[in-house]
Every structure is written in C-alpha cells, then in structure tokens.
Amino acid sequence: MTEHTVSQQASCRVVAVQDDLVTIESLAHQPLIKNEVIYILPSRQAQDGAAGELRQEWLKAEVLRINGKRADAQVYESTSGVGVGDAVVQSGEMLSAELGPGLLGMVYDGLQNPLQQLASDFGTFLPRGVDIKALDQEKKWLFKPQARAGDTVVAAQVLGTVAEGRFSHKIMAPFDLNGRWQLDWIQQGNVRVQDTVAQLSDIHGNQRDIRLMQRWPIRKPVSRALIERGQAQRQYPQQPLATTMRLVDTFFPIAKGGTGCIPGPFGAGKTVLQGLISRYSDVDIVIVVACGERAGEVVETIQEFPNMADPKTGGTLMDRTIIICNTSSMPVAAREASIYMGITLAEYYQSMGFDVLLIADSTSRWAQAMRETSGRLEEIPGEEAFPAYLDSAIKNVYERAGVLQRQDDHQPGSDYCGTLTMIGTVSPAGGNFEEPVTQSTLGTVKTFLGLSADRAYKRFYPAVDPLLSWSRYLQQLKPWFEKNLEAGWTDRVSRLRELLHQGDEINRMMQVTGEEGVSRDDFIVSQKATLLDMVYLQQDAFDDVDVSVPMARQQALLHLLERVIDHQPGGESKTELRSFYTQLTGLLKNLNYSVDNSPEYQRLLTEIEGRLV
C-alpha cells in the first residue's frame, strides 16, 4: 500500500492514546483481526519541505488485542499529534514482507522500508507516516521460465528463475496457494517485480496472476506452510557450520541449520565476533538483524560490509547480505517486529535451497521491546517484568531455524536442502547470565558461546570462556566428524576440554597457596592448559592468516598440540618448566601467523618438533 488517498472510507476511529499504544473502535461491519495492519490518519497534516506543503500521514500500526468492537494496536512510529477521533483505515492484511529479487544488498528498517531510499527522498531525518515499497519497482529482471503451459502447479513450485547477482533466484508459486492449479500461460522476458509473468487457474475457474514478488505474513513461518502443504520436509542437522574460527569449529561447533547464542557484557567483543562469523562462515547468504543495538554499532556495520571483501566471491560482503536495522533510538514497536522480518527473508532464501545465516543483535533489546508493549497492555508480568510468554516467544523464534529438504519439481527424484542457521547475541545487564532472557535462550539453543569480561580485559580474542561455554552439537555431529575428519575426533576434543578444566582448578589452587603449594605434575598440567588456551583458543582478528583458519589447518595444529601435551619435559624447577612452555607458546603463535607450507612455516615447525625430542 504505497499510494493512499484520504477519500478511502475509514472503518475505525481512535478512542484512546497511550505512548505507542492506541485504542481504536470499529465504525463499520468490517471485522477487526489480530495482527492486522491498520493505518492511523492524524487530522493534523504534516508540513514537508521549505514550502511547507501539507501531507497526510499514514501511521502504520498492528492490532494486538481485540475486545468486542474495540482493539488495542501498537503504532510503529511516534504518536505525537494523534488524537481521539482520528480516522483509522484497515488494510485487511497481516504485517507482511515483500519477497522477490532485489533483496540482497539492501538495508531495511524493521518494517522493510528501504532506508537508503528514504534518506535519498527525504534527507537525513526520516519523516513519519511514509510508506515505500521494499523492492525496486522499476528495475527489470530477465525471467527464464522452467515450467510450461498446461503444467499442474502447487504452492512454492518453481516456475522460473532470475539472476540476482551470482545467485539463481527461484520464482515460486505463491506459498499460500491451496490445492492444484493449472498453468495457463507463462512468458520469458525482462520484467519488473510487479509485472505478470504467468497465470494460473483452478477447476472452479478462479484465476491468479503470478509476479516476480509475493507477500508473506512475517509472524507465520514459511517453512511450516510448505511442510503443511507437503512441499518440504524438515531434516535433522547433519553437518557443522564452518566458521574458520578454531574455538567454534573444534570445541563448540554450530550445526548448519542449528541455533546458537553469544551472551556477554558490553565491550566483550560480540560485534567483532558476529562480524567475522558473518564474513567467513560457509553460507550463501547472511542476514543481520540489528534489533535494538546502539546506532553507532549499526552504522559501523552498514559502513564496513560494503567495503569488506567477500572471501567466497572476491566481491563485497554486502552483495550477499541483507541488513534489518532498527536501532535503540528507533520506535520500540518496530524493534519487536524486526526479528520476524529478518527470519521471513531468511526462510524465503532457505526455501530456494540456499544456506542462510541469520544473526540477531541483540535479542535482549528485542525482549525489552516486548516488555514495554506488555506493560502498556497491562498484562500480568513474569520475572523482572518481562511478559509471562517470554520463554515461548524466544522458543518460537529459534525454532524457525532448521534444515528444509525440497524436491526439484522439474527433475523428479532430485532433492535439494536449504538451511537456516540462527545465532542470537544476548546483552545481559552487568554480564548476569541468570537473567530471564539469557536463561530462556539457553534452554532453547544448542550452542552457547559465553563471553567473559575478564578475558576481554586480558585482550583475549575471542573472549569466549571455554569453561562456561558448551555445544550439544559436538556429540550430535560425531558421525560427520568421524567420517570427514578422523576417527576419535570428538573424544580427543573432549580430552582437551578436560585439560582446560584441570588447569583452571590448579590455577585457582596456586592463587591461594602459590606455586610452591602444587606438585611438579600439577604445575605441568597448568602450563599445558595455558598453552592450549593461548595457541588454539585465541585467534588474531587483524592478521590476514590467523583471522580465518580452514578445518584442515585446525586439524594439523591440533595434532601438533597433542604432541606437545603428551610430551614429558625435562627440568625439575618450575622456572625451567615455565620457560620451556613459554618459548613453545611463542613459536606456536608465530606458526599461526605463517602461511601454510611457506619457508617460515616449515622453519617454525622444525624448531617446534626439535624441542619435543
């Protein structure tokens, strides 16, 4: 709904206003629908530009609760100037996303308004009550049909493709198509997203035009609709998401199609960590949802991604990225919707068979938006005033991740899988992991990368606490590791994790008794644990070699470290032992900075092996 006319018949009126919560009353027989999008028309018109031209504002809102002829709706923009008696127009639609070619490389707000287009049309300060199409309406795409006239068509069936950058973007029959339809005609050519490229009809004579774009309600999972219509099946995640980060890939893996969370206090490195995961992970498409982050951090992301080289393609990272931006300074209501918008776009590309990574930053502020809305609705609060349904809301979001298997409609027996991996960052106040949002998230996800302020203060990166973090995927993906890496991989990793715990216990003891209070063997265990931490768990984000470590190199380094750990050093004094392991740590860290099989790499490897004789 981009062009509105005030002459449209208003079906409701405003009867109360409280911050961004508005109570409306129906004036007609048109029913009020939960989650329906409505438009509030303030009687006081806005003045735009130096000439002071008057413009009717259309403030978008969503119905939250219905009570007879009245309903409470949350307004996605400031309600300044909205008064009792103002007209309300119902759209008859749920809050929906526009799905089609042209999404990649875009920066949207939580309602899928293109921010760059808004800034171009209206300047730095975005006006209220403006509605712009999410997809470019004038750009033309070369549509290549894959179906033929006379074919039987069902929901989500691939009808043709267009080239979106390096991707083959599949144009599918509408996801809400019920039953079987016949393809009357289909045409090839350069078309816009709103142009009709095909027409369907059913046995009752109903017809439906097919365009390059379609709309889908963001609070309803695309994957669930496809499964219900028999067009897809959910599969168990069977392989890890390669992030090229040693600590994640080896010790705390995340499955492709799995879930993970990164909680941590301010300044612990969440933004840098999620940026590197976005850049180097083995996925096709990245969607970053900044749902409530500070504006400065979001601006940094928007400025860096277009200039950041994509290691997969050689282009820029923005070529395969979508950013949903709803900062802490933007309306709270839109912040709550932004995460659903991002997931819907991710599911759309997942349904085409792509591997999609969704990073939500941060779900704490998304939950705070729900808390504010719940408080204004006067709902019974739960722990720390969060809504009582916080736990189920978080589970519903993460459960939309997964592996979706589909069959190629044009090649029977040929299946393809799309994955949606979701990683949410959590910002608990004061780094308190016991607060409700963190606890609900930990009860849902299968990988927990807990950031530590203490490790960040020591300049450790990533500042993930290996004693606090865990991954349920390490055992779940054991068959993949055994087949693709080597037998006994997960058992060896578990052994090294046990070494870290033993070293921590001994270090705590030494803080009380001093080095003299522990035996030589215990001191050696402590030194080995420190070496493992410094050499393998730490990674230099600013070094061209160490910033991204393929799995084969991780495997080789782990073998070398196991030789170091199994080696029994000479020398009796703790000073000699400390010197031995300190020198080894320096050599191994330099090895991490050396290019594979370079002369420097071979020299360091020879020197390390010479010390293990």
Automatic annotation (TrEMBL):
Belongs to the ATPase alpha/beta chains family. T3SS ATPase subfamily. Its EC number is 7.1.2.2. PANTHER family: H(+)-TRANSPORTING TWO-SECTOR ATPASE, V-TYPE PROTON ATPASE CATALYTIC SUBUNIT A. Residues 133-219 form the ATPsynthase alpha/beta subunit barrel-sandwich domain. ATP binds at residues 264-271. It catalyses: ATP + H2O + 4 H(+)(in) = ADP + phosphate + 5 H(+)(out). Signal peptide: none annotated. This is V-type ATP synthase alpha chain. Residues 479-561 form the ATP synthase A/B type C-terminal domain. NCBIfam families: PRK04192.1 (NF003220). Gene3D superfamilies: 2.30.30.650, 2.40.50.100, Bovine Mitochondrial F1-atpase, Atp Synthase Beta Chain, Chain D, domain 3, P-loop containing nucleotide triphosphate hydrolases. Produces ATP from ADP in the presence of a proton gradient across the membrane. The V-type alpha chain is a catalytic subunit. Residues 53-92 form the ATPase F1/V1/A1 complex alpha/beta subunit N-terminal domain. It holds the Pfam family ATP-synt_ab_Xtn. Residues 245-471 form the ATPase F1/V1/A1 complex alpha/beta subunit nucleotide-binding domain. Keywords: ATP synthesis, ATP-binding, Hydrogen ion transport, Ion transport, Nucleotide-binding, Translocase, Transport. PROSITE patterns: ATPASE_ALPHA_BETA.
